Amino acid sequence: MLHYKTYELPDTDAPWVVFVHGAGGSSSIWFLQIKEFIKHFNVLLVDLRGHGKSKHIVTFKEDRHYNFEDITRDIIEVLDELHIDKAHFIGISLGTILIRNMSEIAPDRVSSMIMGGAIIRLNVRAKVLVTLGNMFKRVVPYMWLYSFFAWIIMPRERHKKSRLLFVNEAKKVAQKEFMRWFRLTYELTPLLKYFEEKDTGIPTLYLMGEEDHMFLPAVRIIITRHSNSWLEVISDSGHVCNVDQPREFNSRAIAFVKKMDTVSARECEAGLPQLAAC
Predict the structure, then answer these.
(1) Is 196 exposed, middle or buried (0-12, 13-18, 19+ CB in 10 A)?
(2) pTM of this prediction?
(3) SS3 label, residue 172
(4) What does 70-110 look like in DSSP terms, one character per residue?
(5) Where's the AB hydrolase-1 domain (predicted)?
(6) Which contacts (CB < 8 Å, 24+ apart) does range 169-172 have?
(7) Model confidence pLDDT, tens digit, residues 266-275
(8) Domains (range + CATH), the chain
């Protein structure tokens, strides 16, 4: 099972918020969120397989591939272990893909989704990066690749803190594990296309940095096509907006979860089958 950590409030009715990090990171990337969120919610932090303190998770075969469904079900296993029936999910970067996949596999477990630095579609530059990575992943040290990708995605001086945080966390991931995760890029295009075409109707807040040049344009489009979806752009921030501008990220995310939790409770009492846009 994944390594996880929980913070629980005395109020047994407090909603759960689950944080999901991206590839190469760990639950430690949420260090700027924990203090504020535990004032209001029960909080669950997970380290995805091969990351952080979940390095002990092994597959039946040393070189066995796994997919997004495998990784998503790892999270569901933790929810089951803790008897968490439903939660609000917050993800960053590739973690947003896992949350979106959760809404497909177990939609009844997802109260709302907050997508930080959401990956919705791969633009031409992103596709070129993925192609180059697959071409050179066996001849170029993986940390060179990861550092190069981090610089392309977060190029500005004010992104330096986020860039270094993710690079330093990635150094803790074994090379074989990195290769397994990189193979997931083959699944990305068809999976993202499916996500874009299907509207779950689950309340979703996209929190994007205004300088997230790789992924913000696609989010601007998707919110016009999906119901119960909203976009808030955070100034002076890049892809990893929870680190670049933690106060803005926290205040907007907390307000959204509180609002969705309140609306959901009201609709439950009224016997309505689905949350409507508010």
Answers:
(1) middle
(2) 0.88
(3) coil
(4) HHHHHHHHHHHHTT---EEEEEETHHHHHHHHHHHH-GGGE
(5) 17-250
(6) 169/24, 169/25, 169/26, 169/28, 169/29, 169/51, 169/52, 170/24, 170/25, 170/143, 170/146, 171/143, 172/26, 172/51, 172/52, 172/55
(7) 554 444 444 4
(8) 3-270 (3.40.50.1820)
